[in-house]
Amino acid sequence: MNLHKFTFREVKGRDAILYDMKKSIIPSFFPFRDDTITENYKFEYQVIIPQKASAKAKHSSLIILFHGLNERSWDKYYAWADYISNSTGKPVFLFPLAFHINRSPSSWSDPRAMQKYVEQERGDEDRERHLTFLNYALSKRVEADPYRFYLAGRESINNVCQLLEEIRRGKHPLADPNAKIDIFAYSIGGLMAQVLLMSNPCNYFTTSRLFLFCAGSLFNLMRGDSRMIMDRNSFNAMLDYYTKHFIYFKDEKRLKGDILEHAFICHIDSSLNREQRESFYRESSSRIRVISLKKDKVVPTEGIIAAMGEEHKKCLLEMDFPFSYSHENPFGPLAQKDDIQKDIWFRNVFDRVSEFLG
After folding, report:
1. Whole-structure pTM over 0.85, yes or no?
2. 336 vs 355, residue with greater confidence
3. Please, are residues 70 and 134 in contact by the beta-carbon 8 Å criterion?
C-alpha cells in the first residue's frame, strides 16, 4: 500500500463537545471523564493513495472511508481502501470516528485488561452470552450514558468538517482546494454519512456521492447486540433511549435543535419526519448506492428499505455470498478452500464501489 499518515488535532466545535462530555456519566471500569482522554483529541489518520500516484501530487477528487461501530484497528479496511484507491485513481482517507480505532485508550482493546471485568459479571447468564472483552468498553460506556453515542457522532462530524476546511484552504498536501469529496461507508459509519449528506454542513457534500456497504438502515431496525460490537443489555438500553427519550430531552438541554441533529432524528424511526427523509432520498438517489447482505443480522436489508422508501429500488442491491459470512466479517473468516470464491465476491463488491465513486 502507498500509505501516508497525518496528525489531527481537534479544534472545530471542541468547546461545545467538552461541555457535554463533562456531564456524561462515568462508567465504573474507567473512572475518567471523556474530556480527559487525550487520544480522542489528538490522533493520527491515514491516507492510501494509488500506487502510480506521486506522493507530492494534489488530487482533484478524494474518498473518505467511515468504519463500523467498536472497531479497534484498520486491519479489516486496508484491503478495501487499497482496492478502491487503485481502481478509482483517488486517495482514500481512513478517518477514525470518536473513541474508535486509535482514538481510545489502549486498555480498551487489551484482552487481559477487559477480560477481568467480564469475569466479574459471569453470574448473569444473559450478559455472559453477549458481553466479551471485545465489546466490554463500548458496552459499559453506552450503558452508563447512551447519549455518548450521539455525542461521539457529532464530534466525528465536527472533525470531518475541520478536515474539509483544511482542504478548502489549500492546507492539505494531498488534496486540491476544490477537490470533490465522496464517501464510502460501512455499518454505523453509514448512518453518519447519511446524516452528513442530508444536513450538508457548509455545503461540503452538495455533489458528493455515497456508497453504503452493510449500512443505511433506520436506527431502530439495526441489531447491534453482538460479541464484537455491543452486548444485548447495552444495545437495548441505547435503543430505548433514542426511540423513547432522546427527542424529549429539551428540559435537559441535550437537544441542539440544528439541521445536523434533525437529520439524525429523521433516521431513528420510520415515523419521524418520514416525508422529509424520503424527499431527501428522492432528490439524492442518483448520488447514493447501497449493497446489503442477505444474512446480515446487524444492518438488515429491510431496515435500509424503510429508510429510503421507494427510492431503494434505484439504489439498493442485496447480495448473498456462497460462503459463511457475517456483518462483522462480510467476507468471512480466512479459509483456504474459500479463497477463490471470496476473491471473486470481494471484487464483485468493490468493482461496483469503484465504478460508482470513480
Report:
1. yes
2. 355
3. yes
